[in-house]
Write a structure and sequence with these properties.
By secondary structure, the chain is of the alpha+beta class. It folds into four domains: 1-88, no CATH class; 90-132, no CATH class; 138-255, GIY-YIG endonuclease, CATH 3.40.1440.10; 262-297, no CATH class. It contains eleven helices and nine strands. It has helices spanning 41-52, 82-87, 102-107, 121-131, 138-142, 169-178, 184-191, 215-232, 262-275, 278-282, 286-297; strands spanning 3-17, 23-26, 32-37, 70-76, 91-92, 99-100, 147-154, 160-165, 197-205. The strands form three sheets. Strands 1, 2, 3 and 4 form a four-stranded antiparallel beta sheet that branches. A hairpin with a 5-residue loop joins β7 and β8. The longest helix has 18 residues, at 215-232. The protein is elongated, with a radius of gyration of 34 Å. The N and C termini lie far apart (93 Å).
Length: 298
């Protein structure tokens, strides 16, 4: 036999804005809602009125508001109406595992609602707290620490990733898992649970006094150390590193070619931009730029 959802709404003292901005004279959430079995909506209305011992209008005109305290709405619950059917199903609270029905929470009032997955707002708050990612202090996250080389290992296949950082290393660990990019290491992270991974600092790098203020020398030292460990653990061919170090941009470190002319590459890029009209749209002094290029070539 068909089932019908019914809602009994009470009249408000003053009309209030509804969900879509239009004003309404009737309360929401309703005073009460439940379901009845009936052959049709007309029969459902009669059952409800018999149940409560009074008549309920399905529509109230403005001129009749004063003489009507309640409004009844009835809707047949279709087989495809998953949302409404779910209201009456036994559900297990995600937090405390207690059984409940969503409709019962509506009937008791929305103040302790907590969502459709929890029996009450207290359980919803406890579950959110349990799964909350710890807040990382921004100043701590960007603080300059000692440079370290770290190793992240997949315990299932013993493959690893070697990296370097001067941030708090725990923050770098966090970044790998929650600020992923399209590289093979982060693809692997997405395919394994977090419990499979271990993180360790394998060397803290002391910067020699003589290069303490030489940024290029410091970077070269750090990259050299990182590359040494990448080679030691073979973490490109049998691991998750994609390049030899932060300064390298190719897959296989054994094929690195440092014999290229950057000035020629830059010149080709500038020529291509001028030919394609890039500067005409983006550079206010394009004619001066072209003339200076012409003078340099003569």
């Amino acid at each position: 036999m068909p089932e019908f959802l019914f809602q009994i709404k009470g009249k408000l003292g003053e009309p209030e804005a509804g969900f879509y901005g239009n004003s309404s004279n009737w309360s929401f959430p309703p005073i009460w809602q439940d379901k009845v079995e009936a052959n049709n909506a007309k029969e459902a209305k009669l059952i409800i009125e018999e149940l409560y011992g009074r008549k309920f209008p399905l529509r109230v005109l403005s001129k009749d508001l004063e003489s009507n305290e309640f409004l009844l709405s009835i809707k047949e619950i279709k087989e495809t109406d998953y949302y409404t059917k779910k209201l009456f199903e036994n559900t297990e609270c995600t937090h405390c595992k207690s059984p409940f029905k969503i409709i019962e929470k509506y009937q008791l009032g929305a103040s302790n609602y907590g969502g459709r997955d929890f029996c009450c707002s207290e359980c919803a708050d406890k579950e959110r707290e349990k799964n909350r990612i710890p807040t990382i202090d921004f100043k701590e996250s960007i603080a300059i620490h000692d440079y370290v080389i770290y190793k992240i290992t997949n315990k299932e296949n013993n493959q690893c990733y070697i990296g370097q950082t001067k941030q708090a290393f725990t923050f770098r660990w966090y970044q790998h898992f929650y600020q992923t990019k399209d590289v093979k290491f982060h693809e692997a992270i997405m395919n394994f649970p977090v419990t499979v991974w271990t993180f360790e600092v394998i060397e803290v790098i002391n910067i020699p006094e003589e290069i303490k203020y030489d940024k290029a020398a410091i970077r070269n030292l750090i990259n050299t150390k990182e590359t040494e460990y990448i080679r030691k653990f073979n973490s490109i061919k049998n691991g998750y590193n994609s390049v030899k170090s932060k300064d390298d941009g190719i897959e296989d470190p054994d094929q690195i070619d440092l014999n290229f002319d950057m000035s020629e590459i830059n010149k080709q890029a500038i020529d291509k931009s001028v030919k394609e009209g890039y500067f005409e749209h983006n550079h206010p002094n394009v004619e001066d730029f072209k003339n200076s290029e012409k003078s340099n070539n003569e």
